[in-house]
Amino acid sequence: MEFELNFAPVFASYELLLQGAWMTIQLSASAMAIGLVLAVLGAWAKTSGPNFLRGVVSGYVEIIRNTPFLVQIFFIYFGLPSLGLKLDPYSAALLAMVINVGAYATEIIRAGIESIHKGQLEAGYALGLKPRQNFRYVVLKPALRTVYPALTSQFIFLMLTSSVVSVISAGDLTAVGSTIGSQTFASFEVYFVITAMYFVMSIGFSSLFSVIERAAFRYPSNR
Amino acid sequence: MLRSFGWNEIWFIVTAIQWTLILSAIAFGGGALGGLLIALSRVSRTSVLRHAAQGFIRVFQGTPLLLQLFVIFFGLNAFGIVVQPLTAASIALTLHASAFLGEIWRGCIEAVPKSQSEASWSMGLSYRDRMRYVVLPQAARIGVAPTVGFLVQLLKETSLASIIGFVEITRAGQIISNVTFEPFKVFSLVAALYFVLCWPLTLLARRMERRFALSGRS
Question: Where does the record place the ABC transmembrane type-1 domain (chain A) (predicted)?
Answer without folding.
Answer: 21-209
